[in-house]
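Lecture 7 notes: from sequence to structure.
We start with the chain below.
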Amino acid sequence: STVMMPRISYYFAKDEKDKIKEYMLKSYRFALFLGFPICFGLIGISSNLVPWFYGSGYDKVATLLNLSSFLVIAIGLSNITGVQYLVPTMQQDKLTISVIIGAVINFICNLVLIPIWYSSGAMLASVIAEFSVTVVQFRYVRKQLNLKKIIAYVPKYLISSLLMLVLLIIEDQYLTSSVISTLIMIVSGAFLYFIGLLVMREKLLLEFFGQLKSKVQVYLKKNDYFKEKYLPKNRQYIASIIDYIDVFYDYTFSSSKHIDAKYKYKVVAKINAQYKVDTNSIKQVWQDEYVLS
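Predicted structure tokens for the same chain:
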């Protein structure tokens, strides 16, 4: 929210709706990407975690943990819709209404479920209330955002998470309750989840492998200003004391389909000469580009 709110506000002020939709879809995708494995992962490790973490006599905590794990998905989605979208786009009234509806549903569900299932009833009421908030918010934004695309993200994450859950349930039958056992379950479950996504060619993972990795080192002549031999990128440099510049870059491209592709690339250095007019403004006096390779 700290990162996305000002970004969405910026694009909203410029009326760039396509950019808003693009960033919102990325946020939803990332929330589902993490939310599903955390949810089903907690369900899978709860019976192994609770005995050594809480001690004897707290067996029911495992049930409460299983129920509360679904809050990760519900709160994640409602946070994105409410805080990251409705607030910066001046629709706070809709956020308020959704929260009030959730509070009313929570109150009613508590009255019904707590006498029947006690603490489990209270937890189930919270889950129902949080999902109701998400549903109400989705209803408000259904004409503003592409909900079909958001729903289309679910199957891969759900399938991989369920496969992970099956593995954790099997491991729980053979591993005793301990810190080491829980860590083994977490690592193995996460490994299977990511392998499942890779097998299904999940684009979010493939995008991670298609990013440019670069490093710039500006080597300096002997001078009275800097003790370092070189400066990293995104620093201010004094041209007269620059000796040479080393540029390291690596780009890995991955595709979800077999394609016959040709490509060209070039590395361009953009040099800007600027000076500060005052504390609030910078004036550019010169700019040029150099093709390095």
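Points to note: The chain has a mean pLDDT of 88. The beta strands are 212-220, 230-232, 242-251, 268-278, 281-291.
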